[in-house]
Every structure is written in C-alpha cells, then in structure tokens.
Amino acid sequence: MLYILFGTVAEIGNKSRLYFERHGFIWIQKETYVIENGMIIGRDKKCVTADEIDRCQYSYNVLNRKVGFNEQDIVNAVYGKERRLLTVSTDNIDVVKNLKDAFGDYVVLIYAHIYDNALKTALLDAYPDMPQTELDKRAELGRNIKNVYADNAALFDETVVFGGEFGYPELEKQYKRIIDRYDELEKKLNNSKYVELPYTGKRGYVFISYSHDDRLRVYPILKMLQLNKCRIWYDADIQGGENWRKTIRTKIRNSKLVLLFSSEKSHSSPYVMYEYTEAQSFDKDTLIVHLDDKGFPKGYEGLQYLDIEADKFDKKLIDGIADKARSTFTVKPKK
Predict the structure, then answer these.
(1) Which of 58, 84, 132, 306 is in Cβ range 3.0-4.6 Å of 77 for a Cys bridge?
(2) How do residues 163-178 score in pLDDT, each as one tens digit?
C-alpha cells in the first residue's frame, strides 16, 4: 500500500520516515526545482531543472519550489510489490486528491497535526540559522496546511498529533496503530477488489490493451475477469522504449485473445495504437469494449465489440471471451 504523510516538516518528517523505514517501508524520493530565490533545507532535497520536474508524472508547488515524483514508485506500492511512504508538506491538495481518486483504498492518507510551538521548535532545532523571514513563511505554510485539512477532512483516513504531551514516542505509537490496522485491511482488500498482477505462466491468457488514463474504469473489469478465473496480462509496470515494444510484441503473439478498451484516451495513445497494430499483424482475435463513443468505430470490420453500458455487461464479456478463447479460463465458465 501507499502511505501519504501530509504535513510533516523538519526533524518530525525525518524521524517519521525513519520509523516507517524500520518497519519495511521505502520512502519515495522527491525532486525539487527552485522557482525563484528560496531556501532549500534538508539533506533529502534533490534539486533538478524545470524540464526534469515537468517529466515527473506528479508534481505540486510549495513556497518557492516545485516538487515532483514518479508514477512508477506509486505503481509499485499499490500493486503490493513494496510498502511505500510519501511525505507531502504543501497547501496544494490536488496531487493528494489525484492519488486517492486513482488508487482509492490502496492509499492511506494521514494528516499530521503539529502544534504551532512544536513546529517552530522543530524548525529552529534543525536549522538554527534559518532567517526570520523563512521561518515566518514556513509557519504560515503550517497554518495553511491546517486550513487545507479542515476543508478536506473527509479525504483523510487517519490523523496523528505531535506537540505538547505528544512527543516522538507517542507519535510512533500512533504510527504503529495505523500500520497494524491497514495491514489487516490490505489483506481484506486483496481478497475482494484487488486487481492481481499480470499472469506470467505458460497457459493461455487474454492480452489487455488500454490507456492508463482509463484505469479507474478498466481495473474493476479486470478484477471481475480475475474473479471469474480468467487469466489476463496487462501492462502494469513496464516502461517505454525498445524493451517495452519487445515485451508487448511477445505478449500479444503468445496470447489467445486481445481485449481492447476503446475510448477517446486510448484512441490518442500511441501505446494502444501500437498494440492494436501488433494484434492485427499476428491476426489475433480482438474483442473491443467501448468505454465511450469515441475512438475505435463500432462495428469495425472483423471485430466484435461490447458497450460498457450494455445490460448484463459482465456476463456478455465473459461469454464473448469464452467463445473466442475458452482456454484462458482456469475454470471454464458456464454458458
């Protein structure tokens, strides 16, 4: 799972990361671009150019900086490969909302409520030479973060408190309680709604072609197929370039059927277009699911299609796959 710790600063953030690391988490490294004159503090800050930040899939602004990080770290977390921690200290909530929207229950969003005196003390202890102007900016950011939380409290899953009687030992107790709770929740999620990793065995499987921008609509369908014992392969984590093309070509060639999710996004995706072209070059049976009325035309010559809004869509999709590639099911579906 992905844990997002929202609002930690200075040594509070450092000690929080160390605690999570001791419990098997990998911290997501962020990159920082200085937009204008500003003070960069902290040993973990990696400064890059504006172009490098723009290449990051996720980014947000904070004070005089732009901070970015990459999607692959997120994918590794929500697919159970790793337990990841992302620390975010900004009054811009958009990036957090986007992650919650995309990955839902596999993102644990924790608000760190830091009392004002504790915040000021933490900053001065860590950076005793910090100019007063910078200290004022960061104190104001802390107040803004509290307001962001107040306006978006329903978005957060957990809250921890630091300051006053709640020192580092008490903070760690709060983290332990949260980790224990969500370890159990993850097990339940995996049994009910988790999209398993792509099939990698030697038996027949369905190749899934889709735009990653459509994953919120596609993943529930993939989960439904897996629950119905259909073996599927989809691009969950491979990268672009020649290695990607070679892998895709091999997976399409060895598949029993190509299931293509058609949409405005997929029609404009060079990756989906490449997969579609490869499927045609291997003369693969292709079944199209229309997510909207854009993209691949309905009734395209030689191709069968289904509309996601059709009555009994799940059954029709299972039947369509079974008619063309029954061998892709571990347990053959009933007619």
Answers:
(1) 84
(2) 989 999 999 999 999 9
